[in-house]
Specification:
Layout: H1 3-7, H2 36-40, H3 52-57, H4 70-82, H5 98-104, E1 111-119, E2 124-132, E3 143-153, E4 156-163, E5 168-177, E6 182-190, E7 198-206, E8 210-219, E9 222-232, E10 237-246, E11 251-262, E12 265-267, E13 274-276, E14 284-291, E15 296-306, E16 310-318, E17 325-334, E18 338-345, E19 349-357, E20 366-374, E21 379-388
Parallel strand pairs: 1-21
Antiparallel strand pairs: 1-2, 2-3, 3-4, 4-5, 5-6, 6-7, 7-8, 8-9, 9-10, 10-11, 11-14, 12-13, 14-15, 15-16, 16-17, 17-18, 18-19, 19-20, 20-21
InterPro entries: Porin_dom_sf (IPR023614), Porin_Euk/Tom40 (IPR027246), Tom40 (IPR037930)
Pfam family, one: Porin_3
Subcellular location: Mitochondrion outer membrane
Protein backbone atom coordinates (compact mmCIF):
# COMPACT_ATOMS: atom_id res chain seq x y z
CA UNK A 1 0.00 0.00 0.00
CA UNK A 2 1.26 3.43 -0.93
CA UNK A 3 0.56 5.52 2.11
CA UNK A 4 1.57 8.91 0.56
CA UNK A 5 -0.86 8.49 -2.28
CA UNK A 6 -3.62 7.85 0.20
CA UNK A 7 -2.78 10.85 2.36
CA UNK A 8 -2.02 13.18 -0.55
CA UNK A 9 -4.21 12.23 -3.53
CA UNK A 10 -3.23 13.74 -6.91
CA UNK A 11 -5.67 16.08 -8.76
CA UNK A 12 -5.68 16.49 -12.58
CA UNK A 13 -6.22 20.09 -13.76
CA UNK A 14 -7.52 21.35 -17.20
CA UNK A 15 -4.00 22.15 -18.24
CA UNK A 16 -3.08 18.57 -17.70
CA UNK A 17 -6.06 17.41 -19.85
CA UNK A 18 -5.33 16.38 -23.45
CA UNK A 19 -5.91 19.17 -26.09
CA UNK A 20 -9.19 19.39 -28.02
CA UNK A 21 -9.32 18.49 -31.68
CA UNK A 22 -9.20 21.51 -34.07
CA UNK A 23 -12.41 22.64 -35.90
CA UNK A 24 -12.93 21.32 -39.41
CA UNK A 25 -11.64 23.46 -42.29
CA UNK A 26 -14.08 24.99 -44.85
CA UNK A 27 -14.60 22.93 -47.97
CA UNK A 28 -12.38 23.54 -50.96
CA UNK A 29 -13.61 24.69 -54.36
CA UNK A 30 -12.84 22.85 -57.55
CA UNK A 31 -9.70 24.98 -58.02
CA UNK A 32 -8.46 24.29 -54.48
CA UNK A 33 -9.59 27.70 -53.00
CA UNK A 34 -11.85 28.12 -50.05
CA UNK A 35 -15.54 29.04 -50.66
CA UNK A 36 -16.05 31.02 -47.45
CA UNK A 37 -17.22 34.06 -49.43
CA UNK A 38 -19.60 31.99 -51.50
CA UNK A 39 -21.00 30.29 -48.44
CA UNK A 40 -21.66 33.67 -46.77
CA UNK A 41 -23.74 34.77 -49.83
CA UNK A 42 -25.82 31.63 -49.84
CA UNK A 43 -29.49 32.54 -49.11
CA UNK A 44 -31.07 31.04 -46.00
CA UNK A 45 -33.15 27.94 -46.46
CA UNK A 46 -36.90 28.40 -46.94
CA UNK A 47 -39.12 28.20 -43.86
CA UNK A 48 -40.59 24.82 -43.07
CA UNK A 49 -44.12 24.18 -44.32
CA UNK A 50 -46.98 24.79 -41.95
CA UNK A 51 -48.05 21.81 -39.95
CA UNK A 52 -51.36 20.14 -40.52
CA UNK A 53 -52.56 21.20 -37.09
CA UNK A 54 -52.04 24.89 -37.80
CA UNK A 55 -53.77 24.71 -41.18
CA UNK A 56 -56.69 22.85 -39.69
CA UNK A 57 -57.10 25.52 -36.96
CA UNK A 58 -57.43 28.28 -39.57
CA UNK A 59 -54.24 30.15 -38.64
CA UNK A 60 -52.61 29.61 -42.06
CA UNK A 61 -52.06 32.88 -43.98
CA UNK A 62 -54.61 33.76 -46.67
CA UNK A 63 -53.56 33.29 -50.24
CA UNK A 64 -52.77 36.53 -52.11
CA UNK A 65 -53.93 36.93 -55.71
CA UNK A 66 -51.10 37.46 -58.17
CA UNK A 67 -50.78 41.00 -59.63
CA UNK A 68 -52.51 41.58 -62.95
CA UNK A 69 -50.47 41.18 -66.02
CA UNK A 70 -49.44 44.28 -68.03
CA UNK A 71 -51.79 43.16 -70.77
CA UNK A 72 -54.81 43.33 -68.44
CA UNK A 73 -53.80 46.83 -67.25
CA UNK A 74 -53.55 48.07 -70.83
CA UNK A 75 -57.00 46.71 -71.63
CA UNK A 76 -58.61 48.41 -68.59
CA UNK A 77 -56.99 51.76 -69.44
CA UNK A 78 -58.14 51.46 -73.05
CA UNK A 79 -61.71 50.72 -71.96
CA UNK A 80 -61.74 53.75 -69.61
CA UNK A 81 -60.28 56.02 -72.29
CA UNK A 82 -62.87 54.91 -74.82
CA UNK A 83 -65.68 56.24 -72.59
CA UNK A 84 -64.15 59.74 -72.22
CA UNK A 85 -64.85 62.37 -74.88
CA UNK A 86 -62.65 65.33 -75.69
CA UNK A 87 -65.80 67.47 -76.01
CA UNK A 88 -67.13 68.86 -72.75
CA UNK A 89 -70.73 69.73 -71.89
CA UNK A 90 -71.56 73.13 -73.49
CA UNK A 91 -74.06 74.09 -70.78
CA UNK A 92 -77.63 75.32 -71.34
CA UNK A 93 -78.44 77.15 -74.56
CA UNK A 94 -79.90 80.12 -72.64
CA UNK A 95 -76.50 80.68 -71.01
CA UNK A 96 -74.45 80.58 -74.22
CA UNK A 97 -74.03 84.39 -74.24
CA UNK A 98 -74.83 85.14 -70.60
CA UNK A 99 -71.35 86.53 -69.85
CA UNK A 100 -71.62 89.10 -72.66
CA UNK A 101 -75.12 90.18 -71.62
CA UNK A 102 -73.89 90.67 -68.07
CA UNK A 103 -71.11 92.98 -69.30
CA UNK A 104 -73.15 94.98 -71.82
CA UNK A 105 -76.53 95.25 -70.01
CA UNK A 106 -75.89 96.89 -66.65
CA UNK A 107 -78.62 97.28 -64.03
CA UNK A 108 -78.28 101.01 -63.40
CA UNK A 109 -80.83 102.91 -61.30
CA UNK A 110 -81.46 106.22 -59.60
CA UNK A 111 -82.35 106.97 -56.00
CA UNK A 112 -81.41 104.69 -53.13
CA UNK A 113 -81.60 100.89 -53.20
CA UNK A 114 -81.14 98.95 -49.94
CA UNK A 115 -81.16 95.16 -49.55
CA UNK A 116 -81.12 93.60 -46.08
CA UNK A 117 -80.66 89.81 -46.04
CA UNK A 118 -80.72 87.44 -43.09
CA UNK A 119 -79.64 83.80 -42.98
CA UNK A 120 -82.15 82.17 -40.64
CA UNK A 121 -80.73 78.66 -41.05
CA UNK A 122 -78.17 76.87 -43.25
CA UNK A 123 -80.99 76.29 -45.78
CA UNK A 124 -83.34 79.26 -45.37
CA UNK A 125 -82.81 83.01 -45.86
CA UNK A 126 -84.97 86.14 -46.32
CA UNK A 127 -84.30 89.48 -48.05
CA UNK A 128 -85.98 92.88 -47.52
CA UNK A 129 -85.58 95.17 -50.56
CA UNK A 130 -86.24 98.94 -50.51
CA UNK A 131 -86.09 101.34 -53.47
CA UNK A 132 -86.57 105.00 -52.53
CA UNK A 133 -86.58 108.28 -54.46
CA UNK A 134 -86.63 106.75 -57.94
CA UNK A 135 -88.35 107.70 -61.19
CA UNK A 136 -88.02 104.29 -62.83
CA UNK A 137 -91.11 102.61 -61.31
CA UNK A 138 -94.47 102.38 -63.13
CA UNK A 139 -97.66 104.09 -61.95
CA UNK A 140 -95.66 107.24 -61.06
CA UNK A 141 -94.48 105.68 -57.81
CA UNK A 142 -91.21 106.79 -56.28
CA UNK A 143 -90.71 103.96 -53.77
CA UNK A 144 -91.21 100.22 -53.51
CA UNK A 145 -90.76 97.37 -51.05
CA UNK A 146 -90.29 93.68 -51.73
CA UNK A 147 -89.92 90.61 -49.54
CA UNK A 148 -88.04 87.54 -50.78
CA UNK A 149 -87.72 84.13 -49.13
CA UNK A 150 -85.39 81.42 -50.44
CA UNK A 151 -84.69 77.85 -49.37
CA UNK A 152 -81.73 75.82 -50.68
CA UNK A 153 -80.70 72.21 -50.23
CA UNK A 154 -78.76 69.54 -52.08
CA UNK A 155 -81.64 68.87 -54.49
CA UNK A 156 -82.37 72.45 -55.62
CA UNK A 157 -83.96 75.63 -54.32
CA UNK A 158 -87.32 77.40 -53.90
CA UNK A 159 -87.79 81.15 -54.01
CA UNK A 160 -90.78 83.50 -53.65
CA UNK A 161 -90.98 87.30 -53.94
CA UNK A 162 -93.93 89.42 -52.78
CA UNK A 163 -94.63 93.06 -53.71
CA UNK A 164 -97.41 94.28 -51.37
CA UNK A 165 -97.98 97.60 -53.15
CA UNK A 166 -98.46 96.08 -56.62
CA UNK A 167 -100.08 92.90 -55.32
CA UNK A 168 -97.77 90.54 -57.24
CA UNK A 169 -96.23 87.23 -56.24
CA UNK A 170 -93.40 85.59 -58.20
CA UNK A 171 -92.02 82.15 -57.45
CA UNK A 172 -89.43 79.69 -58.75
CA UNK A 173 -88.83 76.04 -57.91
CA UNK A 174 -85.80 74.08 -59.14
CA UNK A 175 -85.55 70.41 -58.15
CA UNK A 176 -83.34 67.55 -59.23
CA UNK A 177 -85.35 64.56 -60.52
CA UNK A 178 -84.64 61.07 -61.83
CA UNK A 179 -81.71 60.60 -59.48
CA UNK A 180 -79.94 63.74 -60.65
CA UNK A 181 -80.27 63.00 -64.37
CA UNK A 182 -82.59 65.99 -64.99
CA UNK A 183 -83.57 69.30 -63.42
CA UNK A 184 -87.24 70.27 -63.19
CA UNK A 185 -88.10 73.99 -63.07
CA UNK A 186 -91.39 75.74 -62.30
CA UNK A 187 -91.95 79.50 -62.69
CA UNK A 188 -95.11 81.15 -61.34
CA UNK A 189 -96.23 84.79 -61.60
CA UNK A 190 -99.52 86.24 -60.35
CA UNK A 191 -100.87 89.79 -60.19
CA UNK A 192 -103.93 91.58 -58.78
CA UNK A 193 -105.41 92.16 -62.25
CA UNK A 194 -104.84 88.60 -63.41
CA UNK A 195 -103.94 89.62 -66.97
CA UNK A 196 -100.23 89.00 -66.57
CA UNK A 197 -100.42 85.68 -64.74
CA UNK A 198 -98.06 83.03 -66.04
CA UNK A 199 -97.11 79.44 -65.31
CA UNK A 200 -94.17 77.82 -67.04
CA UNK A 201 -92.67 74.39 -66.47
CA UNK A 202 -89.27 73.30 -67.80
CA UNK A 203 -87.16 70.16 -67.82
CA UNK A 204 -83.38 70.32 -68.33
CA UNK A 205 -81.42 67.18 -69.12
CA UNK A 206 -78.26 66.22 -70.96
CA UNK A 207 -75.15 64.06 -71.14
CA UNK A 208 -71.39 64.51 -71.46
CA UNK A 209 -71.51 66.50 -74.74
CA UNK A 210 -75.05 67.91 -75.04
CA UNK A 211 -77.91 69.58 -73.18
CA UNK A 212 -81.63 69.86 -73.96
CA UNK A 213 -84.64 71.71 -72.56
CA UNK A 214 -88.41 71.27 -72.81
CA UNK A 215 -90.92 74.03 -71.97
CA UNK A 216 -94.67 74.05 -71.50
CA UNK A 217 -96.97 76.52 -69.79
CA UNK A 218 -99.31 79.45 -70.06
CA UNK A 219 -98.18 83.01 -70.72
CA UNK A 220 -100.00 86.12 -71.91
CA UNK A 221 -103.36 84.35 -72.14
CA UNK A 222 -102.18 81.44 -74.32
CA UNK A 223 -100.21 78.25 -74.17
CA UNK A 224 -96.46 78.18 -74.70
CA UNK A 225 -94.54 75.15 -76.01
CA UNK A 226 -90.82 75.14 -76.69
CA UNK A 227 -87.66 73.07 -76.83
CA UNK A 228 -83.94 73.60 -77.49
CA UNK A 229 -80.84 71.48 -78.02
CA UNK A 230 -77.14 72.37 -77.63
CA UNK A 231 -74.42 69.99 -78.88
CA UNK A 232 -70.62 70.18 -78.65
CA UNK A 233 -69.31 69.03 -82.03
CA UNK A 234 -65.62 69.64 -81.18
CA UNK A 235 -63.62 70.68 -78.11
CA UNK A 236 -64.09 74.33 -79.12
CA UNK A 237 -67.27 74.47 -81.25
CA UNK A 238 -70.88 74.00 -80.09
CA UNK A 239 -74.06 74.27 -82.19
CA UNK A 240 -77.65 74.65 -80.97
CA UNK A 241 -81.21 75.47 -82.03
CA UNK A 242 -84.42 76.51 -80.28
CA UNK A 243 -88.07 76.53 -81.30
CA UNK A 244 -91.07 77.99 -79.46
CA UNK A 245 -94.79 78.36 -80.17
CA UNK A 246 -96.67 81.23 -78.47
CA UNK A 247 -100.40 80.60 -78.49
CA UNK A 248 -101.41 84.15 -77.49
CA UNK A 249 -100.46 85.56 -80.91
CA UNK A 250 -99.90 82.36 -82.86
CA UNK A 251 -96.23 83.08 -83.55
CA UNK A 252 -93.70 80.36 -84.21
CA UNK A 253 -90.19 81.47 -83.19
CA UNK A 254 -86.93 79.74 -84.02
CA UNK A 255 -83.28 80.63 -83.44
CA UNK A 256 -79.91 79.06 -84.23
CA UNK A 257 -76.70 79.49 -82.22
CA UNK A 258 -73.02 78.75 -82.86
CA UNK A 259 -70.36 79.23 -80.17
CA UNK A 260 -66.59 79.05 -80.67
CA UNK A 261 -64.37 79.03 -77.55
CA UNK A 262 -60.78 80.22 -77.27
CA UNK A 263 -58.47 79.13 -74.43
CA UNK A 264 -56.99 81.84 -72.24
CA UNK A 265 -53.29 82.48 -73.01
CA UNK A 266 -50.43 84.33 -71.36
CA UNK A 267 -46.89 85.22 -72.46
CA UNK A 268 -44.14 84.10 -70.13
CA UNK A 269 -41.38 86.62 -69.43
CA UNK A 270 -38.49 86.25 -71.82
CA UNK A 271 -40.38 83.96 -74.17
CA UNK A 272 -42.58 84.64 -77.13
CA UNK A 273 -44.64 81.46 -77.11
CA UNK A 274 -48.13 81.62 -75.61
CA UNK A 275 -49.32 78.86 -73.32
CA UNK A 276 -52.82 78.24 -71.90
CA UNK A 277 -53.28 79.48 -68.37
CA UNK A 278 -54.09 76.52 -66.06
CA UNK A 279 -57.23 77.24 -64.12
CA UNK A 280 -57.56 80.70 -65.62
CA UNK A 281 -61.34 80.89 -65.38
CA UNK A 282 -63.90 80.64 -68.20
CA UNK A 283 -62.42 80.76 -71.69
CA UNK A 284 -63.00 83.54 -74.20
CA UNK A 285 -65.55 82.86 -76.90
CA UNK A 286 -67.35 84.15 -79.99
CA UNK A 287 -71.07 83.37 -80.31
CA UNK A 288 -73.56 84.15 -83.07
CA UNK A 289 -77.36 83.78 -82.86
CA UNK A 290 -79.82 84.21 -85.71
CA UNK A 291 -83.50 84.72 -84.87
CA UNK A 292 -85.43 83.61 -87.93
CA UNK A 293 -88.79 84.95 -86.70
CA UNK A 294 -87.53 88.50 -86.18
CA UNK A 295 -84.81 88.42 -88.82
CA UNK A 296 -82.15 89.60 -86.34
CA UNK A 297 -78.52 88.53 -86.15
CA UNK A 298 -76.64 88.89 -82.87
CA UNK A 299 -72.86 88.48 -82.59
CA UNK A 300 -71.27 88.41 -79.12
CA UNK A 301 -67.61 88.31 -78.19
CA UNK A 302 -66.18 87.88 -74.70
CA UNK A 303 -62.46 88.21 -73.94
CA UNK A 304 -60.67 87.45 -70.66
CA UNK A 305 -57.82 89.97 -70.80
CA UNK A 306 -56.63 88.93 -67.35
CA UNK A 307 -58.41 85.78 -66.09
CA UNK A 308 -60.62 86.51 -63.07
CA UNK A 309 -59.51 90.16 -63.17
CA UNK A 310 -60.33 92.02 -66.41
CA UNK A 311 -63.07 90.90 -68.83
CA UNK A 312 -64.30 92.65 -71.98
CA UNK A 313 -67.52 91.98 -73.90
CA UNK A 314 -68.83 93.23 -77.26
CA UNK A 315 -72.35 92.75 -78.60
CA UNK A 316 -73.51 93.58 -82.13
CA UNK A 317 -77.16 93.26 -83.16
CA UNK A 318 -78.18 93.90 -86.75
CA UNK A 319 -80.92 93.15 -89.24
CA UNK A 320 -79.62 91.74 -92.54
CA UNK A 321 -82.75 93.06 -94.30
CA UNK A 322 -83.02 96.64 -93.02
CA UNK A 323 -79.31 96.98 -92.11
CA UNK A 324 -80.23 98.52 -88.75
CA UNK A 325 -77.65 97.77 -86.09
CA UNK A 326 -76.72 98.46 -82.50
CA UNK A 327 -73.37 97.90 -80.80
CA UNK A 328 -72.52 97.72 -77.09
CA UNK A 329 -69.11 97.42 -75.43
CA UNK A 330 -68.65 96.54 -71.77
CA UNK A 331 -65.71 95.96 -69.44
CA UNK A 332 -65.36 94.56 -65.93
CA UNK A 333 -62.47 95.14 -63.50
CA UNK A 334 -62.26 92.92 -60.40
CA UNK A 335 -60.02 94.29 -57.66
CA UNK A 336 -59.27 92.96 -54.20
CA UNK A 337 -62.26 94.51 -52.44
CA UNK A 338 -64.15 96.25 -55.26
CA UNK A 339 -65.55 95.73 -58.76
CA UNK A 340 -66.06 98.26 -61.56
CA UNK A 341 -68.34 97.81 -64.62
CA UNK A 342 -68.53 100.22 -67.58
CA UNK A 343 -70.73 99.95 -70.68
CA UNK A 344 -70.98 102.18 -73.78
CA UNK A 345 -73.45 101.69 -76.66
CA UNK A 346 -73.70 103.13 -80.16
CA UNK A 347 -76.18 105.87 -79.19
CA UNK A 348 -73.71 107.52 -76.83
CA UNK A 349 -75.20 106.18 -73.60
CA UNK A 350 -72.63 105.47 -70.87
CA UNK A 351 -73.40 103.27 -67.86
CA UNK A 352 -71.21 102.46 -64.87
CA UNK A 353 -71.48 100.46 -61.65
CA UNK A 354 -69.06 100.45 -58.72
CA UNK A 355 -69.28 97.91 -55.92
CA UNK A 356 -67.01 98.19 -52.86
CA UNK A 357 -66.79 95.77 -49.93
CA UNK A 358 -66.74 97.42 -46.49
CA UNK A 359 -64.99 94.50 -44.79
CA UNK A 360 -62.90 91.40 -45.40
CA UNK A 361 -65.06 88.89 -43.53
CA UNK A 362 -67.73 86.88 -45.41
CA UNK A 363 -71.08 88.64 -45.31
CA UNK A 364 -69.62 92.13 -44.90
CA UNK A 365 -71.78 95.02 -46.17
CA UNK A 366 -71.15 96.37 -49.67
CA UNK A 367 -71.71 99.86 -51.06
CA UNK A 368 -72.80 100.40 -54.67
CA UNK A 369 -72.77 103.48 -56.90
CA UNK A 370 -74.65 103.60 -60.22
CA UNK A 371 -74.58 106.25 -62.94
CA UNK A 372 -76.12 106.58 -66.41
CA UNK A 373 -75.47 109.37 -68.92
CA UNK A 374 -77.46 109.45 -72.16
CA UNK A 375 -76.14 112.19 -74.46
CA UNK A 376 -78.83 111.64 -77.10
CA UNK A 377 -81.72 112.12 -74.66
CA UNK A 378 -79.95 114.55 -72.30
CA UNK A 379 -80.71 112.18 -69.45
CA UNK A 380 -78.62 111.68 -66.33
CA UNK A 381 -79.30 109.24 -63.50
CA UNK A 382 -77.35 108.62 -60.32
CA UNK A 383 -78.00 106.24 -57.47
CA UNK A 384 -76.39 104.40 -54.63
CA UNK A 385 -77.15 101.14 -52.92
CA UNK A 386 -76.30 99.26 -49.75
CA UNK A 387 -76.31 95.49 -49.26
CA UNK A 388 -76.38 94.31 -45.64
CA UNK A 389 -76.18 90.71 -44.52
CA UNK A 390 -74.82 87.45 -45.87
Amino acid sequence: MNIPSILFPSFRTRCDAPPLSPPPLPPLAAGGEMTATQSSNTPPPPPPPASSSSSSSGSAPASVAPPPSPREDDDSIARAASTVSSCSNPGPLEGATWDVRRLTSLDTYDGARIDVSKQLSPYFSVVHSFHLGTSMLPDSRNSSYGFTAQMNDEEGFMMARVDPERGTVDGRIHRSVLGGLAMAKLQVGTSAEGSNDQLLGELDFGANTWTANLKYGSMGGGNVVGCNYFQAVSPRLALGAEGMYIGANGNMLSSYTAKLSFPNTVYESGEGDAAPVPGGGPPSYLAATYNAGQGMLSVNYKRSVTPSRVNVGVSLECSPITLESQMMVGAEFNLTRSKMNVCVDGTGRVQSLLEAKLGREPGSPSLNFAAELDHGKSLMRFGYGLNIGS
